[in-house]
Amino acid sequence: MALRSLTKFNFVRQGARSLSSTASLVSVEVNDKTGIATVTLQRPPVNSLNLELLSDIRYNLTELGKNKSRGAIITSAFKTFSAGLDITEMYKPDIERASKFWNTLQDVYEVLYGSAYPTVAVINGPAPAGGCLLSMCCEYRVMVPNSIIGLNETQLGIVAPPWFASTMENIIGKRQTELALTTGRLFSTDEALKVGLIDEVVQDKDEGLQKANAFLGKFARISPFARNVSKQTIRGETLKRMSKDRENDLKRFIQVITQDAVQKGLGLYIESLKKK
Amino acid sequence: MALRSLTKFNFVRQGARSLSSTASLVSVEVNDKTGIATVTLQRPPVNSLNLELLSDIRYNLTELGKNKSRGAIITSAFKTFSAGLDITEMYKPDIERASKFWNTLQDVYEVLYGSAYPTVAVINGPAPAGGCLLSMCCEYRVMVPNSIIGLNETQLGIVAPPWFASTMENIIGKRQTELALTTGRLFSTDEALKVGLIDEVVQDKDEGLQKANAFLGKFARISPFARNVSKQTIRGETLKRMSKDRENDLKRFIQVITQDAVQKGLGLYIESLKKK
Amino acid sequence: MALRSLTKFNFVRQGARSLSSTASLVSVEVNDKTGIATVTLQRPPVNSLNLELLSDIRYNLTELGKNKSRGAIITSAFKTFSAGLDITEMYKPDIERASKFWNTLQDVYEVLYGSAYPTVAVINGPAPAGGCLLSMCCEYRVMVPNSIIGLNETQLGIVAPPWFASTMENIIGKRQTELALTTGRLFSTDEALKVGLIDEVVQDKDEGLQKANAFLGKFARISPFARNVSKQTIRGETLKRMSKDRENDLKRFIQVITQDAVQKGLGLYIESLKKK
């Protein structure tokens, strides 16, 4: 890593600026030689996806697109890849903020799942729920041993939206997705490899970055245009269905989180986290 | 088994009563502790699915739904899981009864494939054609060794309807389904495990029931609501397409069984069974 | 092979006759005992799919359909199965001929992917791009060792159309298809077997023909009608989507090949081939 020529990105965020905390929640380094960007999530302690972190992810991924990136590697600055959606965004919600939160998650999905540039997730620690979704949006996944990944929403009494499910189906097929979603299964690294939810096991983050660069290196001599059209051919239907359903999807989200039973459940869950 | 606290269900069937034979063709036992129902098909000798057996299955599965079942295990009282649709329903058919027969099969499919409660098939013997379909509607399949399962309709000169095919596709994928349907393949237990048509091999029915209870036990602490929404997310499209097409599907069935060539074939087949 | 009773087909081509070169580009031999046809592509040196070869394929496959064939085996007279679309059809194109060329490819796809009779590809050498497509249209694929197969279009700066992609998806699933198309991957024989792109490895063409006949032999006692309806159930959606989109698909093809950048790329590629 030390030998790479890196440029630290300093995109000036316009408009949405106020959403961002002072310290950036996402760092982007671009290798000048390969044109590959490493996008590191760094919201302590576990990259819980709140409105601000999602906004920063959306912003940076969009900027990479505008700059005709040769590829992006998503990873974490911590021992957790991402703990998933920040539950405090759903607990005793301000509806306006909660709506922005969900819309931003939808945006991140569209920008990442549909990105013109190739993407790899270096899953250097647990990736439950929304963390799993982020990694599933990438085109390749490498993961450290003895970790966990999965859409475990039902374990928390909530439901992964249809587009989470479709995205998993596109990777591991309908049968395994049904089993995974209904049981809220968190796969171990080995189980994830076996079922095809990840592509390679790596010893640590450094090896993960090497493998990610190797995967993206395959595209060095391939027409980015032809590559991207092929990607959209495969992902287009899922993306289109999701985009068409954005408003209903938001309504369903707001409806769920404003239920007494769900609020009670989230309250108990947050209490249990505080005690840890 | 002997130690479980069981309640024998005695649903009072209304209206459709006359369809039922005096001796019940389906027995339902509910474990009072777990809330899990064991649904045993018991139409001698091989659970051929005629109008009466299908009506009893539909009735009992629907009642379980109304009673917010925690799960259902489908198995057989005999050495055959189910020999599939009763061919005598199609031979020299009374059109009114044949239509009821097919509509009831459609109902059973909708009730079982779309059930809000989780389901397991303990396949304790051969499960060709309609027997395979029944087991494929469940969320988990365990099977005894040295048996057979598959949609072998083409071997009999008839065709598995599109919703049979979709249901198999959702389990083993398009490629394997095409090979299986065109060749009318009956998979051995080992082959079924390898291709993913079943989930586990068990030594006998008792072990099958244990494994089934273990699978359903996973859901003990999961919100039935969240679980069911996830199931519908995965199965909804297939169910919706089938429900929309019910009338055409019935027409096609009647059209097929009223063909001279098919009647001749069925006649020869029934003769050959009698000689055995 | 020597012992088989073979009838050499001499279909009299009407109308499209002028498209055909004097020496036939496709030979068809029918085994009088089994009714199985061996369709051998023989356009030297590597069965590049130009307008004439595609026309001959379309013609012969259509005739087999009219004659209620019991099955067709597609193979090559050379050491290459097929090098794919003939690039000279796209280089400095006459738009009328290029349109006929593309329409004929679409026809071949519809006739082969949707054929009422069963089909096997004996892939006795490299099958890149259009060669891979031809083999993927068959119901079974056997391949010689140490060869290559895949949709490598992106490696050439062009894009496999959506129906190429769908056809691959129907065999190896969405995940593997995305990886294959974006990287323009050519699978080795062993890799193709592992991912399910081919069904068996055979030592040579003769063993391939034996295996192909063995696969087609499975259908000897199965109703061709029931078999075909099952095939259409699985393939119908993909075929229908392709047929509906034929005109747009042609427009996109013409649009792509009339781009300066693509012409320049094709020119360089043709130059590099000449130097070999």
TrEMBL record, chains A, B, C:
Pfam families per record: ECH_1
Coiled-coil intervals, chain numbering: none
Biological or metabolic pathway of the protein: Lipid metabolism; fatty acid beta-oxidation
Annotated localization: Mitochondrion matrix
A GO biological-process term: fatty acid beta-oxidation
Reaction(s) catalysed (UniProt annotation): (3Z)-decenoyl-CoA = (2E)-decenoyl-CoA; (3Z)-dodecenoyl-CoA = (2E)-dodecenoyl-CoA; (2E)-tetradecenoyl-CoA = (3Z)-tetradecenoyl-CoA; (3Z)-octenoyl-CoA = (2E)-octenoyl-CoA
Superkingdom classification of source: Eukaryota
UniProtKB keywords: Acetylation, Fatty acid metabolism, Isomerase, Lipid metabolism, Mitochondrion, Transit peptide
GO molecular function, one term: delta(3)-delta(2)-enoyl-CoA isomerase activity
Listed GO CC annotations: mitochondrial matrix
InterPro entries membership: ClpP/crotonase-like_dom_sf, Enoyl-CoA_hydra/iso
Role of this protein: Key enzyme of fatty acid beta-oxidation. Able to isomerize both 3-cis (3Z) and 3-trans (3E) double bonds into the 2-trans (2E) form in a range of enoyl-CoA species, with a preference for (3Z)-enoyl-CoAs over (3E)-enoyl-CoAs. The catalytic efficiency of this enzyme is not affected by the fatty acyl chain length.
Assembly and interaction partners: Homotrimer.
Name by which UniProt lists this protein: Enoyl-CoA delta isomerase 1, mitochondrial
